[in-house]
Amino acid sequence: MAPSTTFSTRHRITVCTSCKHKGSHCRPGYELIDKLRRAIAEADDAVPEDFEISGVACMAGCDRPCTVAYHGTRKATYLFGDIDPATDIADLVAFARQYAYLQDGWCSSVDRPGKLRRSTLARVPAAMMVIEESEAQVS
Predict the structure, then answer these.
(1) Which residues lie below 8 Å from residue 80, measured CB to CB, with a gap of 6+?
(2) What gap in Å lies between CA 66 and CA 15, rounded to an integer?
(3) Which of 7, 60, 15, 62 is nearest to 40 (CA)?
(4) Distance between CA atoms of 18 and 4, rounded to whole angstroms?
(5) Which of 57, 80, 98, 133 has the most CB atoms less than 10 A away?
(6) Owning domain of residue 15
(7) CATH number for the domain including 107?
(8) pTM check: above 0.85
(9) Which CDD domains does the UniProt record give (predicted)?
(10) CA–CA separation, 123 vs 40, rounded Å?
């Protein structure tokens, strides 16, 4: 039995909802989720509809609030910090557009839009080895 080479790519943007700015009670994650959902919806066909945007209690980026992660099926995952809902929505939408069309999710910092060039906390490679080993065991 040959492994399937067709799969549905799913994309997700996860926003930390517990991040707060130092010396403040402000938690910008909820505002960021609302603004990002609206901006992606307004982008129409420029950003694929399969982007899911959700919040999570903590992504351990507390020193660089607010943190945002981009995930995709069989793609590298990105974690960005120091994201501001008042100024960074356009860069986040531009990266969603770019990330959706990157086959493996991999891009260099100079290719990322605006502030995301310098606010990357991590890029985690896709778990292709695990997938390939599982598929090899089936055949």
Answers:
(1) 67, 68, 69, 70, 116, 119, 120, 121
(2) 8
(3) 15
(4) 39
(5) 80
(6) 11-138
(7) 3.40.30.10
(8) no
(9) TRX_Fd_family (cd02980)
(10) 22
User: 15, 93, 97: which is closest to 48 by C-alpha?
Assistant: 97
Structure tokens at 38: 């609206």
Domain count, the chain: 1
pLDDT (tens place) for every residue of the chain, 139 residues total = 344 344 456 899 999 999 876 667 778 899 999 999 999 999 888 887 678 999 999 999 888 889 999 999 999 999 999 999 999 999 999 999 999 999 999 999 999 999 999 999 999 998 755 555 556 566 5
Whether residue 3 lies inside any domain: the answer is no
Place of tokens 């980026």: 61
62 domain residue, yes or no: yes
Cis, bond preceding 58 (omega within 30 deg of 0): no
Task: State both tokens at 101.
Answer: 């069309």
